[in-house]
């Protein structure tokens, strides 16, 4: 077992987009996926799958394999337990319904698309920048007494644990309660705070304006 601590690094200007803005755009994409109707959702989900297999193949396949049981549950619950017209007229008693099959396809496509987007985010954004972006987004919570440093640190611990759940990793919860679980080692994580450039402010303002227009439309 080990414990991490955050230490602030200097403010540095990186040539790419601000990590907090990347997270906002990613969240906007996830929300947009939930609002798309089925005719537009299927091409979007296929595009997410194609891009994920192109740029984050191993991670995307691993995450999709981990949600296969949830995907199967979605198909069974919606396709066979939704009232409607039988899809197989020859065996109507054991056939899924047409309406349920469409609902299973819709919710399964949303889940697969979000999983692919998660794989792309984790693959293309380093852990330090991901935590830094989360810290930047959580800074307003400091006005309510919530520590953004602790939130960022807990996110880092979760990401480290998820990434370490390989074939040889201990997944049994009793491992964490064992007395001989191992010595506790400390780790210092340097949190690099990024500056917002002119392009970041412009894109952030456009995103906020688009959200306000969508909410008022």
Provide a compact summary of the structure.
Helix content is 63%, strand content 6%.
Model description:
Helix content is 63%, strand content 6%. It has 217 residues and is mainly alpha-helical. It has one domain (2-9, 18-206). Strands 1-2 form a two-stranded parallel ribbon. The radius of gyration is 22 Å and the shape is elongated.
Topology (elements, then pairings):
Elements: E1 2-8, H1 19-35, H2 38-55, H3 57-66, H4 68-81, H5 98-124, H6 127-138, H7 148-163, H8 174-177, E2 185-191, H9 198-216
Parallel strand pairs: 1-2
Helix pairs in contact: 1-5, 1-6, 2-3, 2-5, 3-5, 4-5, 6-7
Summary tags:
217 residues, mainly alpha, two-stranded parallel ribbon, elongated
């Amino acid at each position: 077992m080990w414990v991490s601590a955050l230490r602030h690094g200097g403010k540095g200007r990186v040539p790419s987009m601000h990590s907090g803005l990347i997270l906002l755009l990613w969240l906007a994409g996830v929300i947009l996926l939930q609002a798309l109707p089925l005719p537009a959702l299927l091409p979007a989900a296929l595009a997410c799958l194609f891009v994920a297999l192109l740029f984050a193949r191993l991670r995307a396949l691993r995450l999709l394999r981990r949600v296969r049981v949830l995907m199967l549950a979605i198909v069974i619950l919606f396709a066979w337990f939704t009232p409607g017209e039988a899809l197989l007229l020859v065996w109507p008693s054991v056939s899924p319904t047409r309406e349920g099959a469409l609902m299973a396809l819709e919710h399964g496509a949303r889940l697969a698309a979000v999983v692919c987007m998660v794989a792309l985010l984790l693959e293309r954004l380093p852990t330090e920048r991901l935590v830094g972006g989360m810290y930047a987004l959580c800074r307003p919570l400091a006005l309510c007494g919530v520590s953004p440093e602790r939130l960022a640190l807990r996110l880092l611990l979760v990401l480290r644990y998820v990434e370490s759940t390989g074939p040889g990793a201990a997944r049994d919860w009793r491992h964490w309660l064992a007395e001989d679980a191992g010595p506790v080692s400390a780790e210092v994580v340097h949190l690099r705070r990024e500056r917002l450039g002119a392009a970041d402010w412009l894109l952030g303002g456009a995103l906020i304006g688009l959200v306000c227009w969508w909410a008022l439309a």
